[in-house]
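Figure 6 in text form: structure in, sequence out.
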């Protein structure tokens, strides 16, 4: 009944369910959710941000409230009940990380007095520019990662590690996106595949490889040319 042609589709059913659920206060969580989905951050970080916003992270406090036997205290400081707000922002060790990352003033200003994690999350994000939002998100991921490393592997990450891991994640992810978009450009526009001479005093080595399933072998070829584009050496080989 949701489709004009009478055929079932996941798309229309999903929309239907979301509309029913969205109109129900118990399920709906207000906030700029599109901001999360549009952010240029790794999918695992988006997913974590969504889980935080929905208050479904398995913190000790939450596990206990669901009847799972576990300690209630914070796995890192062992000094307070472990809920999401504590792990991410209130724990003294997390605060030190935010300070080290240069975001504590923004985070602190965005946190409000109520314990509603989604309101706090959106309130902090609202105060940050796009770059800061991305860094904030990977920091959240890295702080939660520290908590899990402690709980599951008994590994204690330093504050420095937490910040460095976040920086590394966002930098390497951005680099990978750039390479991907460059690769896409080359693939979709063969006109741009023009050989260019190396700069003065340098050689250029072009390589290629092929794979033969039938012979279970790899063929490689390479060709070196100088800064005038003159042939220097070449080699091909079956391996
Ligand atoms: Zn703590």
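Output sequence:
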């Amino acid at each position: 009944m949701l489709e004009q042609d009478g055929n079932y589709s996941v798309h229309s059913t999903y929309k239907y369910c979301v509309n029913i659920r969205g109109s129900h206060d118990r399920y709906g969580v207000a906030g700029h959710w599109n901001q999360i989905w549009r952010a240029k951050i790794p999918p695992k970080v988006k997913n974590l941000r969504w889980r935080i916003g929905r208050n479904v992270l398995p913190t000790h406090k939450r596990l206990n409230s669901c009847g799972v036997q576990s300690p209630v205290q914070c796995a890192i400081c062992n000094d307070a009940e472990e809920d999401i707000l504590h792990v991410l922002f209130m724990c003294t060790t997390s605060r030190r990380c935010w300070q080290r990352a240069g975001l504590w003033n923004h985070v602190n200003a965005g946190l409000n007095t109520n314990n509603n994690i989604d309101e706090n999350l959106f309130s902090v994000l609202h105060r940050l520019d796009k770059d800061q939002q991305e860094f904030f998100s990977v920091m959240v991921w890295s702080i939660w990662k520290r908590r899990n490393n402690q709980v599951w592997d008994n590994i204690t990450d330093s504050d420095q590690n937490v910040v460095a891991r976040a920086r590394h994640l966002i930098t390497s992810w951005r680099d990978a996106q750039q390479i991907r978009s460059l690769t896409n450009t080359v693939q979709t526009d063969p006109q741009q595949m023009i050989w260019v001479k190396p700069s003065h005093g340098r050689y250029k080595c072009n390589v290629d490889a092929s794979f033969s399933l039938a012979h279970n072998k790899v063929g490689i070829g390479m060709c070196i040319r100088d800064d005038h584009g003159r042939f220097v050496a070449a080699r091909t080989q079956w391996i």
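Caption detail: Residues 159-188 form the longest helix (30 residues).
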